[in-house]
Amino acid sequence: MPDGPVLVVGLGNPGPGYAGNRHNVGAMVLGLLAERVGTKLSPGKGPRARSVSGEGRLAGRKVVLAQPTTYMNESGGPVRGLLDYHHLAPEQLVVVHDELDIPFEAVRLKRGGGEGGHNGLRSITRSTGTKDYLRVRVGIGRPPGRQDPADFVLKDFSSTERKVLDLLLAEAADAVEELLAHGLEAAQNVVHPRT
C-alpha cells in the first residue's frame, strides 16, 4: 500500500431497519474505527454526497473513514466521489465488508479477486474500473439449510452470534489497523492465524 492517506469504507445499507443485519457488518466495523479515531461521521456535500465520513489518524496514517448512505448495490458512486475528492487512487482504498464464504468470527485480508456475488463490491469495481483494492472480509458464514443467501445477509445476527459480535468487530477493526501499519502480507500473517 502506498504511503499517504487511505480511504477506509465500511459497507452496509442505510436506515435503522438494516442496522443489525449481517450485511451491515462493514458499517459496524467502521463505526468502531470512528470511535477509535475520535471522529464523527458527517454527511458530505458535492463529490462526497451520498456518504458520511470523518478524518483522523489511525495506525500512524491519515485516514478518511466513510460509509455510503446509498443501498449496498449503489456503493460504487459514493466511493468514486470520495476517492476523487481526496485525490486518492484505488490502491489507497480499503473496503470492509461481510463475507459469506468465510466462517462467522473469522477475518481475512486480500487485495483484488472476485466479488463472490457481493453487490457492494461489484458496484465499487464498476465505479473504480478495477478489482485491485484492499478488502477486509468479515466472516458471516453460510446460511443454514436451504435459506437463500440474499435473505440470510438481510437478517440480524442471531442471539448466539450477538454474544461474540463485539469481539468480531474488534478483530476486524484491529485487522484494518494492522493493514495500515504494516501492509497486506505482514497483516495477513498476524490476522489469519488469530481468527
UniProtKB/TrEMBL annotation:
Subcellular location: Cytoplasm
Active site, renumbered: H23 (proton acceptor)
GO cellular component: cytoplasm
Enzyme class: hydrolase
Site-annotated residues for Stabilizes the basic form of H active site to accept a proton: D98
Sorted UniProt keywords: Cytoplasm, Hydrolase, RNA-binding, tRNA-binding
Gene Ontology MF: a single term: peptidyl-tRNA hydrolase activity
Residues carrying the site annotation Discriminates between blocked and unblocked aminoacyl-tRNA: N13
CDD domains: PTH
Annotated binding of tRNA, by residue: Y18, Y71, N73, N119
InterPro entries noted in UniProt: Pept_tRNA_hydro, Pept_tRNA_hydro_CS, Pept_tRNA_hydro_sf
Main localization (coarse): cytoplasm
Family per similarity comment: Belongs to the PTH family.
HAMAP family recorded: Pept_tRNA_hydro_bact
PANTHER family for this protein: PEPTIDYL-TRNA HYDROLASE
General function of this protein: Hydrolyzes ribosome-free peptidyl-tRNAs (with 1 or more amino acids incorporated), which drop off the ribosome during protein synthesis, or as a result of ribosome stalling. Catalyzes the release of premature peptidyl moieties from peptidyl-tRNA molecules trapped in stalled 50S ribosomal subunits, and thus maintains levels of free tRNAs and 50S ribosomes.
Name of the protein in question: Peptidyl-tRNA hydrolase
Gene name tied to this protein: pth
